[in-house]
Amino acid sequence: MRASNPTSLPISPAIAAYGMLTLTTLFWGANAVAGRMASGHVSPGMLTMLRWLVALIVLLAISGPRLRDDWPKLRRALPHLMVLGSLGFALFNILLYSALNFTTAINAAIAQGGMPVAIFLLNFLIFRMRPGILQIVGLILGLCGVAMVAAQGDPANLATLQINRGDALLLLAVLVYASYTVALRSKPAALHWQSTMTGMSAGALIAAIPYAFWEAANGDLLMPDATGWGVVLFAAIFPSIFSQSLYIRGNELIGGNRAGLFINLVPIWGTLLAVIVLGETFELWQALSLGLIFSGIALAERFKPKT
């Protein structure tokens, strides 16, 4: 009888990747709920700074040997990585957490579904990646879905520019993260993920510190209480370290194009968690906006140019 290979996976690599990527999007969706829970318990700048401080400490603890091996390459790439981290890790989360002081976690989750639409538009504007007719239709559907979130389901709010402050911040956060995603094209590819994450986390921490001081200067700084510390630790471990690790491994198993589609699950997880954990109400217009965003993404993905 043939002996089993102890190093073989009990499940196929594809199934393993699906599980990893599903957990990744679950943690990202939970980040919106955690940010809503943080309101009144820790200020956005302090939450972002402490989140990346904890993440950086953990990464330094587990990545020491790798960082020593990669240091010659990491030293050259560090300024670039820190800029990326300050944009995608710090500024995005500051805007997201600030928005959640004024809007719902469901809106935050749905708005993040507009990221692929924003990425698509930026790639066209910057890299002249020309869309097809059905891609343009998909883009318009996605923009309509995001606009519905900003208008709180009432188009009259757009006509009179009556947009909730929180939803305006959400739209800005989506644009920032889309810019970060497009900028990742120039990320150094030779570095191990632990070195890359450490460099970007350091950039995020440094970028968040001035905003925390600005909160203090304006009397808005709120040090975390017990609930705030719970949110800090959750955000540092799950949406940050675990999600990035699982996402990178999922990419290795099934490739970046297929793995990237899983970001479409973020609004679903975020909406479900907001209803279950926070008791928020899921309105009909929110379901419609979610449907428009997903329809737009599906068309844009289905008819994107082959590379």
TrEMBL record:
Source domain of life: Bacteria
Assigned GO CC terms: plasma membrane
Localization terms from the record: Cell membrane
Record domain EamA: where: 19-149, 165-299
Record keyword Hydrolase present: no
A Pfam family this chain is assigned to: EamA
Main location: membrane
UniProt entry keywords in alphabetical sequence: Cell membrane, Membrane, Transmembrane, Transmembrane helix
Transmembrane segments: 7-29, 49-67, 79-100, 106-126, 133-151, 163-184, 196-214, 226-247, 259-278, 284-303
Bilayer disposition of the protein: Multi-pass membrane protein
InterPro entries in the record: AA-Vitamin_Transporters, EamA_dom, EmrE-like
Keyword match Transmembrane helix: yes
Protein name, per record: EamA family transporter
